[in-house]
Description:
Elements: H1 6-19, H2 21-34, H3 36-53, H4 55-84, E1 96-100, E2 114-116, E3 122-124, H5 132-139, E4 142-146, H6 147-154
Antiparallel strand pairs: 1-4, 2-3
This protein binds zinc ion.
The site of zinc ion has 7 residues, from β4 and α6.
Amino acid sequence: MPYKDPKAGAAYRQSYNKKNRARLRNYHRKYRGKNKNRIRALAALRQRKYRQAHPEQVRAMNNRIRRNRRTKYRTWLSDYKAQRGCKCGEKDPRCLLFHHTGESKKGFTIGGQGYYTDNSKYARVDIANRAWTDILAEIRKCIVMCANCHLKLHSPK
Ligand SMILES: [Zn+2]
């Protein structure tokens, strides 16, 4: 029997939930365990609908996520470069870069703004689009050098 007074109804539900907290938690846990796929599908559907209905918000959200990630990555890379430094003693991360050593195949330029692909198209590289594990794997192929030492390495007298 529903309560006439909505406040009384809310109070009753609250006390009921409080009294049966353990039982309800158990019930919900069981339900979630049995209906994993159903719950996932419903969530995906809800998300898809939201995305279709709010393209601007989704774009803004994605940009925000990417911007935050880019800042985080850059800060980390900058600290890493400063820690390593160049063999000549340069410690300023602004002058330091990642030089790919030896025969390891270069996957991408870390910290690069853009690069020419094999068919000489200029491609913008956004580090925020990289997986962190990929960046770490790429760093493992590199040594930190300053720009001057890097130039001397690539153009000997
Ligand atoms: Zn140097």
